[in-house]
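Hey team,

Sharing the DNA-directed DNA/RNA polymerase mu run so nobody has to redo it. Sequence (382 residues) first:
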Amino acid sequence: PEPSTQSAGNTMDSYACRRRTPLQHHNMVLTDALQLLSENAEFCENEGRSVAFKRASAVLKALQGPVCSLEDLRGLPCLGEHSRRVIKEILEDGVSSEVECTQQSEKYQAMKALTGIFGVGVKTAQLWFWEGIRRPADLQTFGKKLNRAQAAGMLYYEDLSTPVTRAEADLLQGIVGEAVGAVLPGARITLTGGFRRGKQTGHDVDFLITHPEEGREEELLPKVIGWLETRDLLLYQKIHKNSYLEAKEWPARSASNMDRFERCFTIFKLMLPRVAPQGSTQAPRAPEAQEGGTGESPGWKAVRVDLVVTPISQYAFALLGWTGSQLFERELRRWAGQEKSMSLSSHALFDSTRVRDGPPRAPTGPKGHGLSVLHLESLTGP
Ligand code: TTP
Ligand code: MN
Ligand code: MN
Ligand code: MN
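Structure output:
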């Protein structure tokens, strides 16, 4: 029997992947607070605590109505003592002193600003914080040497911290689709990540690329990048080759969501459609960071785009893995492992009771290894 809890006449499953989690829900104030604590735990490299707050937040998102009293939480899963204390404070006082305190703290604010730079992770931001760096502008004062990604991150900081809109994602889909179609006829792209989940904004745009004929997708990315660079559409790009061959464990059992697909982290130079100067329609905004201060609009915006290439045999798993959210993926893998004795990754799904050592080296995908691969439909639950 799988764990579930009765609450207010509803069954609340303790695995987030087995519940409906709508984008619009009734407990925004509470989930924002818990998510801030989760983010802060990440900044302190406390992954366990970070995930615990994310799980608690996800439970509140799944509720049919607003939480009005602690009674409403009775029997709900994933709400630990700490989360309940924060919720109680907000219900009673409107705010949580711990959340307020964290948000105002020098550490949180510095880590938020520094990890907001493309190419800067928690580890680097922490080192810089210990050295006394608090804001991106301090990096120059302290004479820090930046790698190529971080330098681009600083150059386009304003644009990259402005949310990407759905309209911009659609424009990019057109451009990437044209590039992919030009270098490999028949290749297809799919919009993944937050936009595939229906979000109206995102921090980047994610695309999955494949070709219906297995193997034709090999070495595709350098050509796509070349096509885009020739047209001056990229501000930054870094290709990571696929690493199926080096895979020691197959599929990876770690909780990490890094996979072994060929990928490219890019910053696109997205030309914004010129709007006719009439009535109330607005011209594209001028990002100050890239401007000489003339007040003239450059007519483009820097946007982070992730390109991922998968062989068609792994497409379903890659699509599932790259759609997110991060918590959904983590919970799905946890559920597969703990409840179904299956091992799920962005590459394949295995019956881990039948597979001990994984497939032979240089796998071509989940097919043809005598392994048990379930149809995805049986995983999607209610
Ligand atoms: P993100 O683009 O980081 O997140 P998102 O699209 O859900 O949200 P945002 O709007 O902020 O961009 O990653 C997209 C999904 O891809 C994420 O749910 C997990 C997955 N993923 C991998 O499978 N491997 C990876 O290496 C990364 C970075 C993400
Ligand atoms: Mn994304
Ligand atoms: Mn993100
Ligand atoms: Mn991404």
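Residues 193-194, 199, 202-204, 206, 257-259, 321-322, 324-326, 329, 346 surround thymidine-5'-triphosphate (ligand 1) (CB under 6 Å).

Ping me if you want the raw files.
A.
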